[in-house]
Amino acid sequence: MTSIAATFVRNGKKIVAIGRNYADHVKELNNAVPKEPFFFLKPTSSYLPSGGNIEIPRGIVAHHEVELGLVIGRGGRDISQADSLSHIAGYALAVDMTARNLQDEVKKKGLPWSAVKGFDTFTPISTFVPKSEVTDPQNLDLWLKINGVVKQDGNTSKMIFAIPRLIEHVSSIMTLEEGDLILTGTPSGIGAINPGDRIECALADPTTKRELAKLEFG
Amino acid sequence: MTSIAATFVRNGKKIVAIGRNYADHVKELNNAVPKEPFFFLKPTSSYLPSGGNIEIPRGIVAHHEVELGLVIGRGGRDISQADSLSHIAGYALAVDMTARNLQDEVKKKGLPWSAVKGFDTFTPISTFVPKSEVTDPQNLDLWLKINGVVKQDGNTSKMIFAIPRLIEHVSSIMTLEEGDLILTGTPSGIGAINPGDRIECALADPTTKRELAKLEFG
Ligand SMILES: [Mg+2]
Ligand SMILES: [Mg+2]
Ligand SMILES: [Mg+2]
């Protein structure tokens, strides 16, 4: 039997993406370090399975943000930090593509981020990684290369708000359901992807030295 | 057989909500009339079926915005205005609840609207109205009363961007799927709901003089 969590790309309902959760990334965008987590929603229609092609709309500067995704197994609301990890079914590697030039505009105008983050193909996503394969989600390496050159290279230990705090915060506002994905923010090194670029990303467990997920797109 | 569209509250994946689509509402919030439609996402976890109780988090000023909802039947992307109505399976009456004081803050800071619009119970929703019951979606009356006093009383003919333009715009950015809901904006008269208030809303067809949907919550 395949669970909704294991098939979250097809059957999940929401993507909740945390902003500004790595200090080095906050600095590179000249943003303030947040006092509490904040998030935005991406539509599940933006998923792009590994091996696909990203579509960059005309006039859009499309930035990559490689991120660890948490796949919710057991739903809930007002989840405590102590309980939080038991609500996770597994993980995925994702890229939170962002129309950076449009985002600069909407931020100035106080408008929502939904279009900027929500174009079709703007959430490249790996296959599902069951939690049993992960030693410690707060110690995973993730990197992104463009045409063979490393652009982002981080570790989830560098999050400003740790995973339990993220789940507590999101579930204090909206009920989490099986198959929901939480994106946990991106380390530094973000930048533009151009048509024809070849993108490779990986998620690895430094404890077991195993590669947990690979994500490629063009 | 019950379709995903008819059961959109349980089975739909996204809610796309249009902002500032009635001139009288744009004026009451001192906003600029938009040159093209804009939207934000609400999570489907925020649906509150008629008869339920709204939860207003401590410290939140929760404003009502009564709106016509379009329930997508046939999905698609880059839908033309000419084809747009054929993608609608039916309608619903909704209230786009908004944490207005938080929204004022995030707008100033250029932050996303997702939390402000996305609390559990922040999308009270009527039952599904099949399109066959509606003479013309661009000529429907909708009103909202608090404790018996009319607060909002509008007609969908007053939209700045008509329904075909909304579907064209949203589907140019993100694929629409069966069961998705598009909220089409609110007429003037928005204001705060207080704990204990009794809210009644209705959607009516002035051509047939029939009430199409009723929505009540406390
Ligand atoms: Mg991101
Ligand atoms: Mg959704
Ligand atoms: Mg609204």
Report on the architecture of this protein.
The first copy, chain A, has helices at 8-11, 23-28, 81-84, 100-109, 114-118, 163-173, and strands at 15-18, 39-42, 47-49, 62-64, 66-72, 88-95, 98-99, 123-125, 129-130, 141-146, 149-155, 181-183, 191-192, 199-205, 210-217. Chain A is an alpha+beta fold. The model of chain A has no long low-confidence stretch (mean pLDDT 97). In chain A, a hairpin with a 4-residue loop joins strand 14 (199-205) and strand 15. In chain A, the strands form four sheets. Chain A has a six-stranded mixed sheet with strand order 2-1-12-5-6-9. The first copy, chain A, has a four-stranded antiparallel sheet with strand order 11-10-14-15, with no helix packed on it. In chain A, strands 7-4-13 form a three-stranded antiparallel sheet. The first copy, chain A, is 18% helix and 32% strand. Chain A has a single domain (8-54, 61-217), classed as Fumarylacetoacetase-like, C-terminal domain (Fumarylacetoacetate hydrolase, domain 2). Chain A is globular and about 45 Å long. Chain A starts with 7 loop residues before the first helix and ends with a strand. Chain A has six helices and 15 strands. In chain A, 47% of the residues are buried. Chains A and B meet through strand 2, helix 4 and helix 5 of A and strand 2, helix 4 and helix 5 of B.
